[in-house]
Hints:
- It is built from ten helices and 16 strands.
- With 405 residues, the chain is of the alpha+beta class.
- The protein folds into two domains: 3-263, Phosphatase 2c, domain 1 (4-Layer Sandwich); 329-399, no CATH class.
Amino acid sequence: MTEFVWGAATDVGRVRRANQDRHLVEDGMFVVADGMGGHSGGEIASEVTVDSLRGSGVISTLDELIDRVQEANAAVVARARREPALRGMGTTVSLLAELVRAGPHRLGIANVGDSRLYRLTADGLHQHTVDHSLVEALVRDGRLSRAEAANHPQRNIVTRALGIDEKVLVDAWELVPVAGDRYVICSDGLFGEIGAPEICEVLSTVEDPQSAAEDLVSRACAAGGRDNVTVVVVDIAQADSVDDVPDDRVTDTRKALPDGIFEGHHVADPPAADADDANPDYPNPDDPNPDDIVLPPVGKVFTWRLAAFVVAVLMVLVALVGSLAVYARSTYYVGVEGQEIVIYQGRPGGVLWFDATLETRSGLLVGALEPHDAELVLDGLEFDNLEDAEAHIEDLREQLSPETP
Ligand code: MN
């Protein structure tokens, strides 16, 4: 059997109002889920996922582990269906679980989205999972450098998430547990703020997993804390002895859709580690050109694009209303109130809800003007400023006062 010692920490960070990350630490099941979506959808998606995985009981095979992830996905999808306000919510999931079976026990890793699982061994820190994110795809395409990706404005966009579609592609691996290995599961709030060298340094110097998790979280917050940050540290304290442990610990790799998708050609027996070619249903997730199921860019994509769109629309509206107000209020006109000739600030008839307001009374009656002048005043005679309007009033006053020299 495998003996785990673990620690976990999470923080809302310094920018976000809510912590949409959720984690689960049970003996033999360690999960980080990073939710996304408005109307508290993000929190709910990650919460539903963690609740679905809680108390999973004994899991023996990688297929069973993948089934658990598919069940969690189905639970999030079902919840979004019931509550239309939660539509579009989604969550990442990265997990480490013990595979309990006859013979030496194994570890199972499953991943969807851009949370990560790292492994620290005597050789150093190894990022085990591959991010399902836009920037990762751009980096793999050679269109973005790692450094550019780290600060890319769209680094939050994921290409896979739970809760979006009934079918979700799950990356999964079976590994040999080795005493002394340390696993770290984290949300992007960690590696979005601090680099791998710093993560490695903390993990290799802080022995207690709880202290290491807390240290990493507080460093991510200190570095900016632009996102929720969650870290779960799991040490393999004891493991069944196995001959010939692969360097990367991996004994089996899957990329699996739910049952039914591969109906008729489902591989009954787990393929051997080197048998990817013989089992096209299970391509290697590390393949640089994975046979990806292309899902519509939703989840974070949707949320961020929608937010940006709403902000842009609001900005345009504010600018429009602002310039409208300036336009509506910047001029004066000579008009009438009842019979009296007056000066209004604004435009004749007003502009939408910006009514002209009375500025100055003249004491002159419009009926006393020559018909042509009266017509102009009744229509409203516009001027760029108050002085010009007042000057026009004085002109009219002179016309109506023949005794003035
Ligand atoms: Mn995040």
